[in-house]
Automatic annotation (TrEMBL):
Its main location: membrane. Belongs to the binding-protein-dependent transport system permease family. LivHM subfamily. This is Branched-chain amino acid ABC transporter permease. It is found in: Cell membrane. It comes from the Archaea. InterPro entries: ABC_transp_permease (IPR001851), BCAA_transport_permease (IPR052157). It holds the Pfam family BPD_transp_2. It comes from Natronosalvus hydrolyticus. Keywords: Amino-acid transport, Cell membrane, Membrane, Transmembrane, Transmembrane helix, Transport. GO terms for molecular function: transmembrane transporter activity.
Length: 287
């Protein structure tokens, strides 16, 4: 018998992590108008940053969480400033170069760490039973932290000058420039925030699965689908799209076959784009 409650809970918990990754991905596209394939590398870097702080430096996993935020954020800044900025007007080269960055990072970890996945401790050990359903405390805690970050980002965008500037650049770069907004500085902020979100998602994934050299690839591919489905540049669309895709993934893996993960999402994306080419919450480009 299908446990509907368990499926629903798993979908809700997993989708929050997909939303974290997708929001960073869509922010970069909305601001810099480039597809940052290297976003997946930040997930891997975040997971391994926490792992090395905990296992090698023998520090608390919470110190590792800080590393999972800061190190991918700095890495993202370096990628933009020294690799992407000189060629940002050439979208094809940006995709090729960021793909190369992703592959270099992944295979560097594979070479120096190995193929074996590494376990990291739970952020909140133990489990809780609610109405006959056993929940891992760590998964619930990760869900709450993910939503705290999402809500914090939304408040930052809506309530601060810098956040408003990010939104303005995403809506109309020419108008933002006429208003005196330093687009280069705003772009740097955006890449740093996106790197931090992907990095902490890497820690969250690793805390209930494991960290491995290829851990950033699947979330990146799903995030690409989520962003297109929700509407490129839309944070709200990324959250809604993440829950649609996360639910479909959970249903497919649980009820059909784990090997078909991603197939249902692509089918839904195909039909959505036929009906709404800009996605669920996309907006027309403003000149």
């Amino acid at each position: 018998m299908v446990d509907v409650v368990t499926i629903a809970v798993n979908a809700v918990l997993l989708s929050a992590l997909y939303a974290l990754v997708a929001i960073g991905f869509t922010m970069i596209f909305g601001i810099a108008e480039v597809l940052n394939v290297a976003h997946g590398a930040n997930i891997t870097i975040g997971g391994f940053s926490a792992y090395f702080v905990w296992s090698v430096l023998d520090l608390s996993i919470w110190i590792g969480a800080i590393a999972a935020l800061v190190i991918p954020g700095i890495f993202s800044l370096i990628v933009y400033k020294y690799l992407i900025k000189p060629i940002e007007d050439d979208p094809t080269m940006v995709v090729i170069l960021t793909l190369a960055v992703l592959l270099v990072v992944e295979y560097a970890f594979r070479t120096f760490v190995g193929d074996t996945a590494r376990a990291i401790p739970s952020l909140l050990p133990g489990q809780t039973e609610i109405a006959g359903l056993t929940l891992q405390n760590n998964r619930v805690f990760v869900f709450l932290l993910s939503w705290a970050l999402i809500i914090g980002l939304i408040l930052f965008i809506n309530r601060t000058w810098t956040g408003q500037a990010i939104e303005a650049v995403g809506m109309n770069r020419r108008g933002a420039a006429l208003a005196g907004i330093d687009q280069h500085r705003i772009t740097l902020y955006t890449w740093f925030i996106a790197g931090m979100l992907a990095g902490i998602a890497g820690l969250f994934f690793g805390s209930f699965q494991s960290v491995s050299w290829e851990m950033g690839l699947d979330p990146l591919l799903l995030s690409f689908t989520i962003v297109i489905l929700g509407g490129i540049g839309s944070i709200k669309g990324s959250v809604v799209g993440a829950y649609i895709i996360g639910t479909l993934e959970t249903l497919t893996v649980t009820l059909i076959d784990a090997r078909l993960a991603g197939a249902a999402s692509l089918i839904v994306l195909f039909f959505v784009l036929i009906a709404m080419p800009q996605g669920l919450y996309g907006r027309a480009e403003v000149e």
